[in-house]
Amino acid sequence: MKLTKRLGPGLLEELNAGLLTLAVERKVLRSRRLRVDTTVVEADIRSPTDSGLCAHALARSADKARVADTGEGFVIADIPERGGPVDAGLLDGAITKAKKAGMQVRSVYADRGFGTSTGNAALTRHHIRDPVIPRQQRAAPIEHCRNWKRRYRYRNGLEGRISQLRRKGLRRTRLRTLSGAQTWVGGIALAHNLQRMALLT
Length: 201
Fold this sequence. Notes:
alpha/beta; 5-stranded mixed beta sheet; 7 helices; single chain
């Protein structure tokens, strides 16, 4: 934990990006499909001793982590900001990080929380022409097609991936402050990706 704390979120993010780039270069990571979701990470808080501390504890009780994965099992996981930002606003960052690593993202799979105008803008910006994301309000006609429903079921695999990461420590950060939480999540993602790299090479 002390080593992870010293590294900081910035260095861990660079290490994760470098590992994913290496996986792409060695053709270990070839998937063009990206699944994106979010999960709550409980914050590490001190036991409050007065009303002021209690208010602080409630304000920092949890953060929302962004999690994306590939068909090979590599993950992109981080806490972009404090609190609980809307899911759709986190889509752009996930695609950006995947493409920065060298992935040629063609399809993005996500749940209804990403099916907003903000999410659509991110897809357009990254030229994602094959999104499998249901609309948040009125369903698009394509969502009723059997083939689309079959493809959307592929997104469910990310729930299992998140569950796997939570068993590895994503459930709750052991480091205080936002920077600490970002460091914690970055360390879990790096450890997971190193395991996948070792398994696939």
